[in-house]
Amino acid sequence: MVFVRGRLLALMMIGLILSVFIGCGDTQGTSSNPANSKPVAPVDNPSTIASITHPQNTIVGDRMANTSDQPVTLSKQTKPSPFRFAEVAKSSGIDFVHFSGMTKDKHFPTANGSGVAMFDYDGDGKLDLYFASATLLPLGTAQKGPNRLYKNLGENKFADVTEASGLGYQGYCHGIVVGDVDNDGDADVFLCNYGSNVLYLNNGNGTFRDISKSAGVDRASWSSGGAFLDYDNDGDLDLYVANYGEWIYPKDDIFCGNREKNVRLYCAPRSIRTVKHFLYRNNGNLTFTEVSESAGVSRSDGHGFGVIAADLNSDGKIDLYVANDMNPNFLFLNKGDGTFEDATESSGAAYDEKGQAHSGMGADAEDLNGDGLPEIIVTNFANEYNTLYQNLGKGSFMDITPYFGLSSDTMPWVGWGAALADFDNDGWPDHFVSNGHVDDNRRELGQNVEYPEPALLFANSQGKRFRLATLQAGPYFDEKHVGRGAAFGDFDDDGDVDIVLNNKDEPAALLRNDTKNNNHWIRLNLQGTRSNRDAVGAQVEVVAGNLTLTRQRKGGCSMESSNDPRLLIGVGPAEEVSKLTIRWPSGAVTTKEHLKVGQAYHIIEPDAKDGNTDSTVAKP
Known about the structure:
By secondary structure, the chain is mainly beta. The protein starts with a helix and ends with a strand. It is built from seven helices and 39 strands.
């Protein structure tokens, strides 16, 4: 990707100036909040403009007011996708069906759906699947669900083990955050709920117990997602929790929509009061202390969704990025002394290039162009695009969405769970986003707005541009779904990234990656000793052939979901990894040379900084 940095920095300054003067309010329906106009973002395909500027209704503040009555036209695909995915949920024994609690009353929390997690709950080396679900509102009206856990039996088969595991939570669950909070080698589970949040401790025998109250994390809230990270680098995992806001029934049960036609819609996010997010410091004894104020992350002006925990300014310390719905996206840079610098307004990653706050939901970070710096992707609402921020270094970012080929194809849809992941192992991270609208009744207002929407898949053209790549990618991409949470990882251990989807009020989808090519890969299972055992915050550099790849063991990412904790790194056609360098959060460095491709490596952090440690090799 070649850009003139001077021009980018100038545009970034203009965007920051505009952010001060341009209002970005937006209400929907007949609530009392003032409505401001929503700008049309720049597009990279002028033919798309006509499809998003034709007004169809006059509801005050409606984000879909400029929806066209013409069908959406995506970029023309002149060649088949390099990816192939098979939907195998039913044949694999996954019979989960999500329940959102949505009724004609359109209680706001029922719009946001739930997530899914990929992790090894029983220590057998295979990725299991855990799906979140919800119930009817107001709470206590009925009992639905529960969340369900499926054990990976191998050979593309799963079995429901919810009851025996103790993970059958029944309540209103949005998000799942997975991490080893007590460094005992077992994955523990935190649930982000509307209501009290829950922490399940893994007993090490395939069962879990609820320690929420004794751990001090059971406060009632409306939480969407979060991330485990070791922000103070003391060797255990802390927890950031993104809160969407405050919605109290019946106080906040506002009618939004068209009263004349008696069509009720979901209200806009700005009808919801924002609240402070949580940062829990791990005390090392199965208790946590809420420290957002003293740590410098106590902002309360974001409807929080996706969270990224990663080193975003290349200083070796783990930072936090939070996607917020119609508010600036937060960027907190770790100062290394147990506190963060709030770099939100100065980062260039809080707003789009016009200085407008988008409806941030899903988020991920990965180095897209090979310069060693992770870019950030954020999914947004319809009539916005999914924003791609180029990392300029030192905590500065620039919205480059139109230049990278993403704006026109993502603008018509409501984007949720997402990833920057290398689906064909060529060394260049690609992009997937799960789409689905919030309202199922827009056609009653004469709007050409469908509730289910197509998932999108983009191929990375060697760091220069994304191109739409759904043609012949698999039947799932020819269909439409009400997408929400999405997790990414290699559930069948065949060396490529699969996708699991928790679609709203639909059966779950399991997309097995069946892409065929001559590219190779390695998988890293990192185990910290002085660092946190999950090695969250570790940085990896891989040299293979003509590729030099930089990856991180991140916390959080996507939306409401948890990904495969192992690092799967595509190395293209290279026959070996000539050099692997791991920089652990403690400062220790591990170096390996001449590693065979197509294998998994279990690498343990050295006790000293000399990097002399053995690694266990396991063939997939």
